[in-house]
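Running co-folding for iron/sulfur cluster.
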Amino acid sequence: MTGEPLALYVHWPFCVSKCPYCDFNSHVRDSIDQEQWREALLSDLAHEARLLPGRTLTSIFFGGGTPSLMEPSIVESVIVAATSHWRAAGDIEITLEANPNSVEAGRFADLAAAGVNRLSLGLQSFDDEALRLLGRAHSASEGFRALQTAQKHFRRVSFDLIYALPGDNEERWAATLGQALSLGTSHLSLYQLTIEPGTRFATMVAKGELQPLAAEAGAGLYELTAAMTSEAGMTAYEISNHARRGQESRHNLTYWRYGDYAGVGPGAHGRRHGVRTVRHRKPENFLSGITGQGHGIVEEAPLAPEEAADEALVMGLRLREGIDAAAIAERFGLASIVDWPRVERLVESGHLRSDGKRIALTAAGRLVLDHVLGEIAALDPSYAVAGSSAARLASEPA
Ligand code: SF4
């Protein structure tokens, strides 16, 4: 439908080295032909634009990998192309993820000139020993300098920290978080370290070379985080994301509120008119796709209404505002997306808030999100109302 909002995700798949905790689609290569990548991303973008005409672009997000390793002129080319394929909203948010080493910080002025208006900086820690453990290529002092440079060039700056590292404790994390809150940014992403399968950390844990923090200690740090950020006026609007009012990531809100987004670049996911799109993960395969078919898509499948509603539930419950369960059910032609008697039980046990329509997690519920989801999801196909179909969804904008 003309004018419907759309978010655009652009994936840059390269990093200078692979961090041991990382399960993102990131690759290390000796050399990168930036011109070839400019053309490839522009082709992939043009393909999505042809299939999503007339939309209003509300955000662009350059993620990775390490998109601050892109030539700023490529970032500019993508922004120019995207805003000519689609009408840009007046307050379009254009975010780029950056690593805080000096080479990349040297590009911030050019990235701002290219049109990026929000920077998300991967500081991860203020402690050199922790940065070494995390395999980061920057030092704490480089991180602080990069943040200052970023704040000079971008109106909106966010940074990431990882906590609940092996050996972490409340005193240490309180000191780090206190410092983070004093640095003058209006958005913070605070992630607990998780050991993801297939990562170097997972191998180290299996060999007994790394001892993850106990779950109870992690929960204590999460509660401390909630208390300190609320006190500072940066309450979590999503499980791991904190912002001053109005400074939330509009792009990520589109995901969590289950809006449409185009995803281009290696491994990028998108959702177009109820169809899930997945790009080739490996950069070389992605480029072959571009050469052979003009886009990098490896998989394109209509989402069944139950599947889409489940995704909307899983994404939406991450938000402090929660979900309008009745509206989601109606949108996907389902009788209900949750098991209401179980919702009521979890309201009684203090894990959920609900007015019979909207559902949101309480602080206690946020600690056991997966358990809550497992309890309340009503994904039995018998919940579907006759007449709804994936084909109908595919022809309707989300
Ligand atoms: S810089 Fe980011 S994307 Fe790259 S390997 Fe490290 S965590 Fe993964």
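Result summary
The radius of gyration is 21 Å.
Residues 335 and 383 are 5 Å apart (CA to CA).
Job closed.
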